[in-house]
User: What shape does this take?
Amino acid sequence: MNHATYAPEMTFREQDKANIQQDNVHLNEALTVHHLRIKKKKIALLIFFLLSLIGLIADILIGSHGLTLSQVLSGIFHSDSSDIVTQTIIWDIRMPMSLMAPFVGGALAIAGAQMQTTLNNPLADPYTFGVSASAGFGASLVITHVVSIPFIPEQYQIAIMAFVMCLLTTFMIAGISSIKRISIEGVMLFGVAIMFAYDGMLTMMQYIATETQLQTLIFWQMGSLDRGSWEKITTLALLLPVVIAIMMKDAWKLSSLKVGQERAESMGINVNRLRIKTLLLVSLITSLSVAFVGAIGFVGLVAPHIARMILGEDQRFFLPASFLLGAVLVELASIASKSIMPGIILPLTVMMSIIGVPFFVFLIIKKGGRF
Amino acid sequence: MTLKINQLSVSFGKNVILNNMSIPEIHPGEMVSLIGKNGAGKSTILKQMTKRIRFNPDSMTLAGKPLSVDDIGYLPQDHRISANITVIELLITTMHVGANSLFTKARSAENTLTLLESIGILHLANKICTELSGGESQMVGLAQSVINQPKVLILDEPTSALDMHNQFKLLEYIKHYARTTNACVLMVVHDLNLAIQYSDKVAALHNGSLFAYGEPKRIIDKQLIRNIFNVNSQIIQLDNYPVVVACL
Assistant: This one.
């Protein structure tokens, strides 16, 4: 052994430079590939946006009362030239229903995306972890008059109780997730247990409910956009940009969570505060979505996974992509729910389960049951 | 900017991990290796250094002020990155963790690639982190720990997943980084020969206390190895370098 091999000094650095040249990997090439990737992501976001727009228009177009594209467009943009029936169909029936789809789909998708990021669990979603069920149970407490908040209209009481229950459940799951010896699968099973528990309690509520209350409760579990109203759309349209802006402000930090808690802390990130803040926002948007249209399953699971596959997990792209894909999915589900049996609107949960359950199974098989 | 570790105590219940442990001043540009058997408290010291909030801030100071996480670059033992992003995206993200704007700083991609080139892993720039091998992931972890030019570099078993070539490549880069930026480097190393070759000082820990401290050539001898590892060894002098050979 000679001294040169024992104490390499710059030998290795020089050697590696030679290797780089050998591999024909040049700095400029790498830079071009990176810029191209960023460009592709921007294009993908634009395509998702256009798809959500097309989905929205298609959703407005489809309904039992056959309206043509020109009738719909003139009804929206030149309402004076349309007859009163067309105007009523477009502005009072179809638009409130169809506009709820992108808002609710987007909200549930970013809720799922952020649950997956903050809990570091690819199976997390408001529906699979029982968060939606808890919101439904919170709502049922108000509907059956078990709980009532004075001086507040019932519609908002429902939203408040849904939020409170969502909050409780989300933080219960966050607490369980923070216990190191519990695996991702363990947390998943805990979520399933929560879902069963709330389902049981919801059944109890159904049992004590009056006939009218029972009808409302069952409707809740099915999830339907025909409860959409301009008031609800305005609430979501005002709230969602604020929630997304707060999440986007933390985009760099949220992306860094994937390197592990210990390392993220060493980067100066207050992981617990970030997790609590994000889960609070997740609870808020999930509870409002469920309070407004009932539980819609699997959007929060499917949309972020498609976004992750196409764009990766840089939150600057991942978050808006999840939102837009969530919007597209619920729009498609809404279109399908109206088209399969003409004249009848099928529950959205049924439509989403047709897509969601196989996807969920696919995820488990793809990962070989290991996460 | 000297780094000081003063009277550091850590215990979990009745189990004392570090007992009032102090390490002499670590000077700028100096590389210090922590050696000792498993459970001696090496990783515990590093973990205490990387904590955002410390129970006693004066237990670790840099230039007389409590050590802040902003001064630190850290490569943990568990270096696998489970993010579905490319290496360059990971490094750009690390660069912007404290930033409020979503726009990247000027030339951040170029600077990242220059760093990858200087470490010798430019070919990994556009690879997805989850597809990296253990060794590649460790090299990328090194790039991540120095991307913000920290004044203190903390490395927990940085060569554990690396082949011989990459062990030298990584340690050569760390030495180059320490010398050019005047950063203090503190690392846990199990291979005593690497510790001898790449450390200015070695801190030998035993049962949560500092057992010996000084230049590796001076303090690593048969007696020390016998005392802290309970292993018989021979020290061979090769080109003025001591080489540790364990005797079974």
Remarks:
- The domain at 3-247 of chain B is CATH 3.40.50.300 (Rossmann fold).
- The two ends of chain B are 43 Å apart (CA to CA).
